[in-house]
Amino acid sequence: MEGSESEAIFDSYNLNPQLFINAALNIVDELIDSAFGYLHQVWIISEICFDQLANRLI
């Protein structure tokens, strides 16, 4: 009975817990992807700067 009662509450507010969870996981996935993309860009830029500095010292 508890399952049907909670389902009735979700239906009355037009809520879908699975869609909420999927949306939250998608947001986390996008944040992690963006963070790794940013760190990759920083790593490439620092590598280029290090190479230029090393060439000046040679």
Give a quick summary of the entry.
With 58 residues, the protein is mainly α. Helix content is 90%, strand content 0%.
Give the arrangement of secondary structure elements.
Blueprint: H1 2-12, H2 17-57
Describe the structure.
Helix content is 90%, strand content 0%. The protein is mostly helical and 58 residues long. The chain has one domain (16-57). It is rod-shaped and about 75 Å long.
Task: Quickly list its features.
58 residues; mainly alpha; 90% helix
- What letter string, H or E per element, gives the SSE order? HH
Radius of gyration, CA atoms, in whole angstroms: 24 Å
Strand proportion, as a percent range, falls in: under 5%
Give start-end ranges of low-pLDDT stretches: none
Q: Decide which structural class fits the backbone.
A: mainly alpha
Count of extended strands = 0
> Main sheet?
none
Number of continuous helical runs: 2
Mean pLDDT: 87
| Count of the domains | 1
Shape: rod-shaped
The N- and C-terminal alpha carbons lie at a distance of 78 Å
Helix residue percentage: over 70%
